[in-house]
Write a structure and sequence with these properties.
This protein is α/β, with parallel strands linked by helices. 34% of the residues lie in helices and 18% in strands. Strands 3-1-2-4-5-6-7-8 form an 8-stranded mixed beta sheet. Helix 3 packs parallel to helix 5. The radius of gyration is 19 Å and the shape is globular.
Amino acid sequence: MAQGTQFHTTNPHMLKESKVYQSQTLMGGLSGFDSPIGLDRRDRIDALRTGDIGFVHSWDINTSVDGPGTRMTVFMSGCPLRCQYCQNPDTWKMRDGKPVYLQAMIDKVARYEDLFKATGGGITFSGGESMMQAAFVSRVFRAAKEMGVHTCLDTSGFLNKNYTDEMINDIDLCLLDVKSGDEETYKIVTGSTLAPTIDFGKRLQDAGSKIWVRFVLVPGLTDSEENVEKVAEVCEQFKDAIEHIDVLPFHQLGRPKWHEMRIPYPLEEKKGPSHALQERVKKQLESHGFVVY
C-alpha cells in the first residue's frame, strides 16, 4: 500500500453475524463470491465507506473492449448519471447490487493471476459508475498491483474527487467516457456537467496513467461537427496520456432493459449511425493527431 494511504477496517462481527454466510454464494453472475449476510443498514454503510464490501451487479471474464488482454470485468452498482443511451439502467441504484467481501474479490483476482499475466490482461472495474465505491475499488487495485496485475477503470470521471492522488497511481489504464464536448449537449445526454471528466483526465495525465477515450456517436444528439470538434479539444487537454479514441456507434441493445424496468426510454426511435457518419467523425478526430478506432 502506498505510504500515507490509510484504510480502516470493519469490525469482524459486522461481516460474520450469520452462521451460514460462509456457505452462501451470490447467483446471477456473482457465483463464487462470499456475501455478507445479516448486516444491518448502519454496518453496511460503514463497510461500504471503508471498502470492506462492495455492491456488485455482475462480473465476467472476457477479451473484448474493456482493456488489453484477457480481463476480469466487474460491473459495480450505482451511478449518479442518467445517460440517455445507457445499456445498463439496472446498475443505477447501488442497493440493487449484491454485497461482496473485499477479500473475496481479491481472491478472485488472484485465481486468474497467471492468465492475466500470460495474456497481458488484468482487472477492469466498470458499472454503473465504480467511482461511487472508491474505497472498495481502490483497495482491490492496490492488491492487484502488488500481484503485478494490470488495472483498468471504466468511468465518466464525474466523481473523481472521491479519488486521492495515491489511489490514481494504482490505475494503469482508464477507459474515460467523454460523452460530449459541448456543455449543453453533455447536460442533455447525462443530466450532469462535463467539467469533472476534464479534471479527471488531467489528473490521470499528471499521474502517468494511460487513457482510452470512449465517445458514443448518436445521430442527432452527439454527431454535430461542432460537438465532435469540442470532443477533440477536450482530449487535447490530456496530452500524450491518450493511446486512442474509440468511436462507439449507438445501438438499441439496452432498450429491452428500459422496457423491463418500465423507465421511459428517450431514444426509442433512434437509429444507429451510418458508416459514412462514423467515417466522418473518425477522420475529424484523426485530424487532431489521435489514433481512432
